[in-house]
Write a structure and sequence with these properties.
single chain; alpha+beta; Creatine Amidinohydrolase; Arc Repressor Mutant, subunit A; 2 domains; five-stranded antiparallel β-sheet; four-stranded antiparallel β-sheet; 7 helices
């Protein structure tokens, strides 16, 4: 996400939580007394867990590149990718995102969805090992299109060049500046309101935001685990929130009157903790009857739905992502 804690006793941090919108791309859970500058230094055991998650994510990426074909059902692609994560000893950090063309992120689907793989397909997957997460994404061209290929090249090279300059105490704006320069050299735009992020146990987006453009942020990155994810587009470089994606996360556990909703909330807390989950997963355990309970939990503020994220001018988007650890004297990419 050793002994697996993913489905065992709750590891949700104690205390009161607030939902913080760090960008239109993400929702994070954060204790009110957290400090952004708090050290992210890791123990040897934590580093090994991140490495194991990264190794599995890399193997799954290579597997996905081999099996994804044009006109495969996306539900089949997702089941195969998620099944491979579990087969290799990892747990699911979030539902695999399979976003096409102008949909930049957060496309999920129900179990009976007939949508097919096509166009410029972004595969965003997360592996958890004992709660320590590796976040990885790549894009593939399923229509032999030159613009698609250039967008993929722009996002991948922006990631490659930005990772070269990252070190302990780098100022955050420098990372965004490098990504922006590389993407703009291809005459494309970075997506400015999507970003990379720091990683914490059972929290995918936690604390630091790593921009895809020069945002002037002079905060320095300490040691710790991070994910960097440039998005390149032929459009204006902004996304908007579209329809609900069917992806959710736990915000807080609080009393609800309906017994089925309470049972579902207990299940979510135990199995997924603070990590995102999707309706498709719940349908496998509960069937279609979970729709009403989900709606009740969302209205009560116990869970939060993630919207699909669509490029504002409806132009295509490519994504590339690696997870890495910053040490005192070096950077280790764990998803190579």
């Amino acid at each position: 996400m050793g002994e697996k804690n993913y489905g065992g006793s709750s590891n949700i941090p104690k205390g009161k939580f607030e939902v913080v919108r760090t960008s239109t791309s993400e929702i994070k859970l954060k204790e009110k007394n957290d400090k952004l500058t708090e050290s992210l230094s890791l123990t040897y055991g934590e580093i090994e867990n991140y490495r194991k998650a990264g190794k599995i994510a890399s193997q799954v990426r290579d597997y996905a590149r081999k099996i994804i074909k044009k006109n495969m059902k996306l539900v089949e692609v997702a089941d195969k990718i998620e099944g491979k994560i579990l087969e290799l000893g990892g747990e699911l950090a979030f539902p695999v995102n399979l976003s096409i063309d102008e949909v930049a992120a957060h496309f999920s689907h129900n179990a009976d969805d007939e949508k097919l793989a096509e166009g410029l397909l972004k595969i965003d997957l997360g592996v958890s090992f004992n709660g320590y997460i590796a976040d990885l994404a790549f894009s593939i061209d399923l229509e032999n299109n030159e613009e698609n290929k250039k967008l993929i090249e722009a996002s991948e090279n922006a990631l490659k060049e930005a990772l070269k300059i990252i070190s302990k105490n780098i100022e955050i704006w420098e990372i965004g500046k490098k990504i922006q320069e590389v993407i703009e050299s291809y005459n494309f735009s970075p997506v400015k309101n999507l970003s990379g992020h720091s990683l914490s146990r059972y929290l995918i987006h936690s604390g630091f935001t790593l921009p895809n453009y020069n945002d002037g942020n002079k905060n320095k990155l300490p040691e710790g685990a991070y994910a960097l994810e440039p998005f390149a587009t032929s459009g204006v470089g902004m996304i908007y929130e579209s329809r609900d994606s069917g992806i959710y996360s736990l915000v807080r556990k609080q009393a609800v009157r309906d017994s089925e909703a309470r049972k579902l909330l207990d299940f979510i807390e135990k199995k997924y903790k603070t990590m995102p989950f999707c309706k498709r997963w719940l349908e496998k355990d509960y069937g279609k009857k979970i729709n009403l309970a989900l709606s009740m939990l969302e209205k009560a503020g116990s869970i939060r739905a993630y919207p699909e994220l669509v490029e504002k001018s409806k132009k295509k988007v490519a994504q590339a992502e690696h997870s890495f650890i910053i040490f005192e004297d070096r950077v280790e990419i764990i998803t190579i």
